[in-house]
Amino acid sequence: MATIDVPEQVSVLADAEALRKACKGWGTDEKAIISVLGHRNAVQRKQIRLAYEDLYQEDLIKRLESELSGDFEKAVYRWILDPADRDAVLANVAIKKLSPDHHVIVEISCTRSPEEHLAVRRAYQARFKHSLEEDVAAHTKGDTRKACHRKLLQPPYSIDITTSNRGGQSDSGGLRSSRHRKEVKGCRSLVPEMLSDDQLLVALVSAFRYDGEEINTRVANSEAKILHEAVKDKEFNHEEIIRILSTRSKMQLMATFNRYRDDHGTTITKNLEGDSGDEFLKTLRTTIRCLNDPKKYFEKVLRNSIRRVGTDEDALTRVIVTRAEKDLKDIKELYYKRNSVPLDQAVAKDTAGDYKALLLTLLGKED
């Protein structure tokens, strides 16, 4: 359930005028901005933007950006955008970082409905003149792919690569030959099946899943076995794992994960715990958590953003802003159950000023 408190009737013209007044003069009236925007849903916020532009021939978002600053400005900016456009911006920021935030791409790909995700991809293309898939593929190569290959080449595994050419002769090089066989001594997997971070992420952002309730128990049983074999052999980046996670409906995946737990006495994410520096493994765990129980996942993101040394304002803002109109009330209840502290209280303790006031408003609790 949503946390924002929205009046039954609003006047978008009056709201536009109130925001204009809040931005005029020497000082900005941040409280007035919060009192209006913090109590309007996505449809109303869009109508206010249109009314403001019609009245004053000025872009409201640009005006607010020029008036505000810091974490407060970032939170207001993300809140006032249409949800699909906001996700497009979040994805682009995550992709363009020096070390891309893969978990943000996974969140957007795996916690939105198929129609919402499709809207994000359209919004991304309209705003950035590239497809989301294109930018994910272009900006998640490099270190993560090399790390994946380095791990494969680490002892105790030794690589014996033979390449057969048309003349029947053997060549110890030629990794790019059109006809080759690669064997990994001490490891059952074949090198071509070892996929990398960018391939998992591209598969996720390209997905358009079935969104119904129907499940196939036989498929769930079969794919739970496939996942267990891959995890047991530590073939975390096996192509079958990527196929299952990027094509199956969420209900089907939940049935598969439940079968995995029932058959092996533990969850798949527990079996995936390992090297904290393995980027692919972290992305894989995030993917499964987002698909299986997004509320539990977001509760953990909030907990980590507050408990760390120095608040992670970016993560805190992202979760509150993107979930306030969806399921933030349920996430708040889960947070209290797990931490014995109300989320409102935790946020109030770790934030300050207008930024704090806006977050508390979106959480449904005034400062």
CATH uppermost class of the domain at 294-362: Mainly Alpha
Q: In terms of structural class, how would the helical and strand content be classed?
A: mainly alpha
Read across the widest sheet, the strand sequence of neighbours is 2-1-3
CATH architecture of the domain at 294-362: Orthogonal Bundle
Strand coverage percent: under 5%
Write down the Rg.
Answer: 24 Å
End-to-end distance: 21 Å
Taking all residues together, what is the mean pLDDT? 86
**Which residues sit in consecutive blocks of at least 5 with pLDDT less than 50?**
142-195
Sheet having the most strands? 3 strands, antiparallel
Helix content: 55-70%
Task: Let me know the number of strands.
Answer: 3
Protein name: Annexin
Region (Disordered): 159-183
GO molecular function, one term: calcium ion binding
Organism: Gossypium gossypioides (Mexican cotton)
List the helices and strands and how they pair.
Layout: H1 12-23, H2 30-37, H3 42-56, H4 60-67, H5 70-80, H6 83-96, H7 102-111, H8 114-128, H9 132-139, H10 143-153, E1 158-164, E2 170-171, E3 181-185, H11 197-206, H12 217-232, H13 239-247, H14 250-264, H15 268-271, H16 279-292, H17 294-307, H18 313-323, H19 328-339, H20 343-350, H21 353-362
Antiparallel strand pairs: 1-2, 1-3
